[in-house]
Amino acid sequence: MAHLIPTYRALLSCATGRTADQRSNKPERLCLTTMDMLSWSPQQDNSQTVSRSTHGPGDALCRGRTAVNAQASPTVGAKMYRTTRSPMMQPLVNSGMGMAPFFKVTVFEQEHFQGKCLEFTSECCNIQECGMDNIRSIRVESGAWVGYEHHDFQGQQFILERGEYPHWDSYSGNISYHVERLMSLRPIYCASHQSSRMMIFERENFMGRNVEICDDYPSLQAMGWMWPEVGSMHVQCGAFVCYQYPGYRGQQYIMECERHSGDYQHWRNWGSHCQTPQIQSIRRIQH
């Protein structure tokens, strides 16, 4: 029986790829998939950034956020930040330093990019659940976003394209209803400036005369639309922002091909803040 022991050990080594000594002295490694992987890398600035995209308690309303204290005191040594793969797949772009989310926005609690700030790569249903009182300035680094006056994407809508918005007036569209509040925001995934097209109709339920929109129109009347109102719309592709008055002023209404299947049969479908079917300027949303 003793002469069989070496043979058994040899066979066991071939099956596992390791010797008995290696099995007893070295812990077994666990191979994680990309979805499970947790990566660490040094952060050299003076603030700690923690990017979370989980759906656990406390994160359901603020997915993909990064908390940043804009006035943190300097700390000796390199900081560490943790990133995890978001459960909701997002478009990716090659940034030259690897693959990064295509949507990124930083919001600030005070005007002119001062005070506490948060970074988002996906929707936020309620900024107060993320530890902020209000959003008073915004820096959009990539993608197109829409902000809302109230939580849960209700109230006035504000289109937010790439650029800086130091105060409320810079994105409000000069509306007469002046309440400086922005409590929720989300990306506009279907925005495509080069391939946006929709039909506008004279009456509700896609009835009456109609015109195809595939460009930017600061005045619908100047292009031949004879009425100050629009009864219904069908977005075939891309996304548009419609304004109550000429020159891209007044109430804003975001129209997307991915919401309501692109069908806006009645002006009440335009948003919870809509009180009138008046539309006098329309433009494509810049991605």
From TrEMBL:
InterPro entries: Beta/Gamma-Crystallin, Beta/gamma_crystallin, G_crystallin-like. The keyword GTP-binding does not apply. Keywords: Eye lens protein, Repeat. Residues 103-142, 143-189, 196-237 form the Beta/gamma crystallin 'Greek key' domain. One of its GO terms (biological process) is visual perception. The keyword Repeat applies. GO terms for molecular function: structural constituent of eye lens. PROSITE patterns: CRYSTALLIN_BETA_GAMMA. Crystallins are the dominant structural components of the vertebrate eye lens. Belongs to the beta/gamma-crystallin family. This is Beta/gamma crystallin 'Greek key' domain-containing protein. The lineage of its organism: Eukaryota, Metazoa, Chordata, Craniata, Vertebrata.
